[in-house]
Specification:
Strand content: 25-35%
Order of helices and strands: EHEHEEEEHEEEEEHEEHEHE
Number of strands: 15
Strand order of the largest sheet: 5-4-3-2-1-14-15
Radius of gyration: 17 Å
Oligomer: single chain
Structural class: alpha/beta
Number of helices: 6
Helix content: 25-40%
Length: 220
């Protein structure tokens, strides 16, 4: 019997105002049969690991940054999609010109640019104090409403579409490389574990889930 794999989005899908005991028991039974269950999310790697530990979930894998970063549940990075740093500053300048007040950057770890906050943590910087990063895997930010997020998503696509893929997720925008999305990340994961296309089942609820929903046997 082939091992089956369920890759679930987190916010609004697996976690819908919490994760109840029925979901936990179902995941447990699924894994006891030799199958795998994991999360594929737009969240940054550090954030996804924190959630995994907080929720005390029993999982097999984590895909952060819309599939751009593949992690084991103990935090080891198995694969990282890397975007050349030369586009980072023009992208950040453009986003801040569109009215954002902060942006999060994934580059091995998470960095946050928050120009309105004077109390800096070790992950918070301004555009002036941000260290030079050799690459990045994702830039994320949020807008006041879905309409503004859609407008900026389209503007980023028009300006940087040859190298970047902006993915709208409600009021959020997650910007990854032009060829990256959750479906591509799951194909990368299948190669790592020796899984087959027909083994993958995906579950999602938002715009940034559409690639994997269209690509695999899926539920929304």
């Amino acid at each position: 019997k082939n091992m089956k794999i369920i890759a679930s989005d987190y916010d609004g899908t697996l976690n819908h105002k919490g994760i109840d005991d029925k979901k936990r028991e179902t995941i447990k039974k699924w894994r006891e049969k030799g199958n795998k269950f994991g999360i594929v999310s737009g969240r940054m790697a550090d954030d996804l690991l924190r959630i995994y530990k907080k929720d005390e979930l029993e999982l097999d894998f984590l895909l952060a940054c819309n599939g751009a970063v593949i992690l084991t549940t103990d935090g080891k990075i198995l694969k990282e999609d890397k975007i050349d740093n030369t586009v980072l500053k023009p992208l950040l300048d453009f986003l801040f010109s569109c009215g954002v007040t902060w942006a999060a950057i994934q580059s091995g770890r998470s960095y946050v640019i928050d120009e309105d906050d004077n109390e800096r943590f070790d992950y918070e910087f301004t555009r002036e104090t941000l260290p030079e990063l050799k690459y990045f895997s994702q830039v994320s930010t949020i807008f006041p409403d879905n309409e503004k997020a859609e407008e900026v998503t389209n503007a980023v696509k028009e300006k940087f579409g040859d190298v970047l893929n902006p993915l709208q997720n409600g009021r959020c925008i997650d910007i990854v490389s032009a060829t990256m999305n959750k479906a591509r990340g799951l194909y990368d994961y299948l190669k790592i574990v020796g899984g087959k296309y027909e083994d993958m089942i995906t579950v999602g609820d938002n715009i940034n889930d559409t690639h994997m929903i269209k690509e695999f046997r899926s539920y929304a």
